[in-house]
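step: validate -> pass
step: tokenize input -> pass
step: predict -> running
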Amino acid sequence: MNNQISRILRVREVCARTGLCRVTIHTLRRNNDFPEPLQLSPGAVGWLEHEVNDWIARRASERSAA
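step: predict -> pass
step: emit ->
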């Protein structure tokens, strides 16, 4: 686990940062291709900012390598 202090991003901000919709994020999670969210309360989840940033960086590096 990364020991960085990280903000928790709610789904609206994750969508804005990645350009993905909620359904696509859910599909990617189901396929183990997106970070798992944290359960914040019974009806709320959030993602660690550094994990989302790392995912974006990996996608960018995959594109550069192709």
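step: describe -> The radius of gyration is 12 Å.
step: cleanup -> pass
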